[in-house]
Automatic annotation (TrEMBL):
Residue ranges of every copy of the D-isomer specific 2-hydroxyacid dehydrogenase catalytic domain listed in the record: 20-323
Keyword Transmembrane among UniProt keywords: no
Organism: Aquisalinus luteolus
One Pfam match: 2-Hacid_dh_C
Source taxonomy: Bacteria, Pseudomonadati, Pseudomonadota, Alphaproteobacteria, Parvularculales
Protein name according to UniProt: D-glycerate dehydrogenase
Length: 328
């Protein structure tokens, strides 16, 4: 690094403890208004910074890196997902990228499990019925959902979050099936009593609930395509706490509306407002506003992890959470 003090630009408000620590350690420009920076503002900040502390709303694409100038050396992302960063362009411009994996896995898995329970058990429909005065007493046949116990859960991507989902699902009596780019360690597979499916298509045709837990990369864009969604049986549910782009949500909405799928629990929403609105109107879809890591604990841990990456990089060491395209 240079002899001049390292300058860090943080693109969004972070928990106060993290901002204080950043200000203690570095020459830092914090975000006052917590609004995503425009592409022009990002480039302007990068030209005057050694480090950009980014979040998932920042579009750090090839154009950004082409215009970012020579000073920028590190993009330290606050978050695990890096699909908003063009990793190849970063590397080509000599910029290291780090993220904050693992620390949010348990909280993200809680939200996935909450959705795995909420949709088949009709939790949100029940709350809405109560709030709108439609409940006039218990009935043997009213508001019947489906048990999750004994059902087959198919996890796509058995990384940190996927494994944490599997542990929870096992405790709720679901059997765990998974498809991953790489088969996991046999000890972990045994502990989770997880069945590996090399073929995603074969797995989808056999499971009752699908949980999407792989990262969004060019290879996983619309992994759950219209064709693959049709492999699921009509009583199946889909849960996604990763990124909306992994599912063809227009096809998903269409199939749920036609009764070809039983419902969905989505923590991540499609950038297309038409599709999101359609999904939101369906009673058997529970949508959350990207809350999987939204706990004080996770956000502090993410900040701490980001700080460690920045500090190690500035001190001339390899930061622990370097992201390289081959990892994804
Ligand atoms: C991440 O870390 O990428 C999560 O989506 C943030 O909640």
């Amino acid at each position: 690094m240079t002899d001049t003090p390292c300058k860090i630009t943080v693109t969004r408000r972070l928990p106060a403890e993290i901002e204080l620590r950043l200000a203690d350690l570095f020459d830092v420009t914090l975000s006052d208004d917590d609004r995503p920076m425009s592409p022009e503002a990002l480039v302007e900040a990068a030209r005057d910074s050694d480090v950009i502390a980014s979040t998932l709303g920042d579009r750090l694409d090839a154009e950004f890196f082409a215009n970012a100038g020579d000073r920028l050396k590190l993009v330290a992302n606050f978050g695990a997902g890096v699909d908003h960063i063009d990793l190849k362009a970063a590397i080509a411009h000599g910029v290291t990228v780090t993220n904050t994996p693992s620390v949010l896995a348990e909280d993200a898995a809680d939200i996935a499990m909450a959705l795995i329970l909420a949709v088949p058990r009709r939790l949100v429909e029940g709350v809405k019925a109560l709030e709108s005065g439609k409940f006039d007493g218990w009935s043997p046949t009213w508001m019947l959902g489906h048990s999750v116990r004994g059902k087959k859960l198919g996890i796509i991507g058995l990384g940190r979050v996927g494994q944490a989902v599997a542990r929870r699902a096992k405790a709720f009596g679901l059997s765990v099936h998974y498809h991953s780019r790489n088969r996991i360690n046999p000890h972990v597979e045994n502990e989770l009593e997880a069945t590996y499916w090399e073929s995603l298509d074969q797995m989808l045709a056999r499971v009752d609930i699908v949980s999407v837990n792989c990262p969004h990369t060019p290879a996983t864009y619309h992994l759950l395509s219209a064709r693959r969604l049709k492999l699921l049986h009509p009583d199946a549910f889909v849960v996604n706490v990763s990124r909306s782009e992994i599912i063809d949500e227009a096809a998903l909405a269409d199939m749920i509306e036609k009764g070809q799928l039983a419902g969905a629990g989505l923590d991540v929403t499609n950038p297309s407002p038409t599709v999101s609105r359609k999904l939101m109107r369906l009673p058997n879809v529970v949508m959350l506003p990207h809350m999987a890591s939204a706990t004080r604990e996770s956000r502090l841990d993410m900040g701490e992890r980001m700080l460690i990456n920045i500090k190690m990089f500035i001190d001339g060491h390899k930061p622990p959470d370097r992201v390289i395209p081959e990892f994804l």
